Amino acid sequence: MTTVVRPPKPTLAAVARAAGVSAPTVSKVVNGRDDVAPGTRARVLAALEDAGYQSPVQRRNAAPATTVVDLVFDALDSAYTIEVLNGVLEFAAVSDVEVLVSVNRDQPASRLSPERRAQRMLEEGRSGMIVVTSAFSVPQLAAFRRRQIPVVVIDPLNPPAGDVVSVGATNWAGGKAATEHLLELGHRRIAYLGGPAAAECSQARQHGYMAALMARGIPVNPEYILPGSFRSEHGVRGLKALLELKERPTAIFAANDSIALGVLGEARRQGVRIPEELSLVGFDSTYQAEEAVPALTSVAQPLREMGRAALRSVLRELRGEVLDSHRVELATQLVVRESTAPPAAPAG
Length: 348
Fold this sequence. Notes:
With 348 residues, the chain is α/β, with parallel strands linked by helices. It is 43% helix and 16% strand. Helix 1 (12-19) crosses helix 2, helix 1 packs across helix 3 (38-51) and helix 10 crosses helix 11.
């Protein structure tokens, strides 16, 4: 009778003895922690390889399980997020990928440290992550990158580190196109209701707005630029403030459709007719813009394609492909509807 003797599976303690370090140090290296000296890390990695030890990352990659990707939102309460979600799900359906959707602010996991959350992803067999807007900061994202978990950020409020892939739209060009449309109609007093002052996408849209004005020799009026939030409440407050000015604007460019819809609602309450007395342009061109009364002229972001591009980038990284660029910018397009018209009287 022949007996097959299999060597015991290597343990962290055995690897630690071979490398001349402690077992906790080996655990740190296995889990992608960065608080290990380079020389020590090299010895541990060599000992792990000699022992044939497989890290959680290696075991996950070797397993023939279905690819699971986390999709993390700040909130799922806008047409913007729904469009992005649909784009991710559409691409997942044809790519044999399961998508786990979570809302960061409502999940107990959001109170975990970045290291623990990243480690939980590995333990639960999830392969990558797509983050929409501000769910994670750059230092937090590093915890996932250390564990070789591909992360793609959609429309980040601020630019991520150079090794993090991000997907967005041509915000500057979109802001310029919106303002040029109003200028071509004859407007000269044009206000900008922006998102958060620190948000890069809102800044880019504002700079496009300013560039269009300056190209026509029109001074930028600081009273017409009101940063705030990407919510309809800012549209309400912004219109109230603009109507109190001695020289009211004849047109408003809003940094997103939610702000523009807030303006529409408040204009109705104030008895301001759109577009007869005030023209209005939004940004995103979601289904809400189409269904508004009057239908909202808006800069269309390719939101579904942004979702598809994000998942496509995650899958390419999982396959070990080298990406052409860590920043993907998709073109915007102005969609003219019913909320813009020439000013009622020549602007001064």
